[in-house]
Amino acid sequence: MSKPNFSDKTALLIEDMAEARIMQKKMLNDFGFKSIEIAMKAESAIELLRSRSYDVILSDYNLGNGKDGQQLLEEVRHSHLIPNTSTYLMVTAETSTEMVMGAIEYAPDGYITKPFSQAMLERRLLKLLENKELLLKVNKALDKSDYETAINEAKIVSEKHPALISRCNRIVGDSLISLERYKEALTVFRTCRKESRMPWAAFGEAKCHYFIGNIDKAESKFRQLTLDNKFFVSAYDWLAKTLVKKGEHEEAQAILVDAVGRSPKNLMRQIELGKLSLEVRDNLMAEMSFRRAVFLAKHSCFNDAEVYIQHMASIVALAREGDIPSRQIDNFQTTLNKVHQNFFKSPEVRTEAYLLEMELYSALGDNKTMNQIEEVWNHEIEAGQASAPSATAQKRVDHLKSLKS
Amino acid sequence: MDKIDISTILASAIHESKNHLGTILYQLESLKRLNLDQEGQKSLRKVEEGMKQLNDEWVEYLYLYRLASDGYEVLYDCHALEEFLDDQVFALTPSATAKNLLLEFNADQSLTAVFDERLMTSVVSTGVYNALRFAKTTIQISAYLENDYLVIAIEDDGKGFAQTAEEEDELLFQTNTGLGLYFADLSAQAHSVEDRKGFISKASSEALGGAKLAIYLPQ
To answer: What is the chain A residue with the closest CA to B193?
Structure first.
């Protein structure tokens, strides 16, 4: 096997501390990378990753005030902004290693502990690229969502390279889940767990039980994972999902509150908690979660109008419960302004925003303002900027009118 | 202000000092780029080695603190032992070379086992740094399976653990506090499979004639 050569490879370096950044850039330069681009924080890295892909991404775990390296990784992997053929190497301090290692769902390809020498970094990168090279066909298939091929190629690799068996088994198991062949996946994960006690195997097993419908088994397995290691936060997410399936919404919400406490910067988790809280009518918690989600969404891959709409809906729900403090109305306005700025090109979003605004003022007993909003809305419907209300939206309008009289 | 546990204060202090040291180590990398003469390069290497060792020691103390205060979460993963030991030897060879000692490893190519990599990395470096003080020519790290336990052993050709009481007194006045062994023991114990826990053993090395520190990890 030929040693990987850096001269045809591109790199992205993500590091917020100037000193470390300069040094790491020099190191990458010395290795002879074809190009090296730099981002000082996660948000600018996302911008770069939107426009192109890199062979190697070297990211610090700690990236200052914004997202950390693990959240960045989860987001870009989840939204397929980086292909499986790219290598993601996380730079950690001892204290942050467990946060990275605890990520059973989206793990980086490798990690390196600070401080490291140039020789150490070179060695790590060479080894990782060598493995990527061996798994090239597998990863290419995964990038095309061709799971059948991925499974076959992974089996070939694991026969030739015993050191990669564990990695390949995991790919086979996950691919079988993607193909909805849960029983086969269960066998793969169960064997792996028995042989190696690896958390991802127990996690995969629990997911299979969830999909097959063995809800009690899934619950106990996810619960065990949360007990095994407090950093397995995605086990909490799945435990909550499982409890929802069982109809135990309140307990599910409590689990997510716990998980959010452990890792408050995860957008998807905040959204889930918000939705679940609306369902169990804990509107205060819903408002708080969606407010955080709106804040987190701004610089993420999931900057979707839905999050903003949900936040406004949670405040409407609060107002319907009784008197609300004026800062909640300010919160509503702040989010509404963001919707105006970012999503008002969509006629549907406009309509939903006006409707929520009407519902809020109706709940506050301010019919005058509500009527003014309706006028603006109708005007925009005529101009074609806002869409005509759907059947369900029309029902909400009718309901408001019936309250008025 | 509430009274804080002194060990927590010490751990945070060590943590900050370690981060500071990390920054200096980065700056050292730029010194390495200068065209120093032989003498300069030699001193630079010594400084770097010393700082790296200090860093590794502080990492050990931080893990020790967390193991002793039940704040450590063991992360099991499957590792090829040849690769793991190769990494350790790569990282520690400069320290051995600086003392004119040979550091080598020995593991079956097909041997894989489950353990917490970062914890064992710290245990192996602690063991090797300790052996550096006693070895005459050679230090060997090896890994093998024994009755469902993975054994990682660090052996040297020094005078071994069997010392007379007099010599032990002498050791008390040296820098040896036994902290390293305590750390290795706690790290081994943190590994468990059902009701089997890890442990360490101190013995004499059959291969090299000196000390042998063996860490047993249940599989």
So the answer is: A197
Give the phi and the psi of residue A137 in degrees, each rounded to 5: -65, -40
- What pLDDT, on the 0 to 100 scale, is given for residue A199? 87
Q: What angle do CA A148, A149, A155 make, to 5 degrees?
A: 95
* Calculated CA dihedral for residues A178, A183, A189, A191, nearest 10 degrees: -150
- What type of residue is B155? E
Pairing of strands B192-193, B196-197: antiparallel
What is this model's ipTM?
0.81
Longest dimension (CA), chain A: 81
Q: Which residues of A touch B110 (CB under 8 A)?
A: 162
Does the beta-carbon distance from B29 to A231 stay under 8 Å?
A: no
Contacts across the A-B interface (CB distance below 8 Å): 70
In this complex, the residue of B32, B75, B83 whose CB is nearest that of residue A163 is: B83
Task: For residue B29, give the nearest of A113, A118, A165 by CB distance.
Answer: A118
β pairing state of A87-92 and B192-193 = unpaired
B181 CA: distance to closest CA in chain A (Å): 21
DSSP assignment, residue B145?
Answer: E
Q: How confident is the model at residue B132 (pLDDT cuts 50, 70, 90)?
A: very high
Is residue A69 a contact partner of residue A44, using CB atoms and an 8 Å limit? no
Alpha helices in chain B (DSSP H): 6-32, 38-68, 81-98, 117-134, 165-172, 179-190
Q: Which of B43, B134, B52 is nearest to B95 (CA)?
A: B52
**pLDDT tier at A39 (50, 70, 90 boundaries)?**
very high
Distance CA(A193)–CA(A200), nearest Å, equals 8
**A261 vs A3, A92, A224, A256, CA distance in Å?**
45, 22, 19, 8
Contacts of A19 in chain B (CB under 8 A): 23, 26-27
Q: Burial level of A46, CB count in 10 A (0-12/13-18/19+)?
A: buried
Q: Cα angle at B73 between B67 and B24, to 5 degrees? A: 70
Residues of A in contact with B33 (CB under 8 A): 26
Domains of chain A: 8-134 (3.40.50.2300), 136-212 (1.25.40.10), 213-303 (1.25.40.10), 320-405 (no CATH)
DSSP, collapsed to helix, strand or coil, labels residue A33 as coil
Token pair, residue B122, equals 């710290």
Q: What is residue A89's DSSP assignment?
A: E
Question: For the segment B161-206, what is each residue's pLDDT rounded down to a tens digit?
Answer: 765 444 554 444 445 568 889 999 999 999 998 899 999 999 999 9
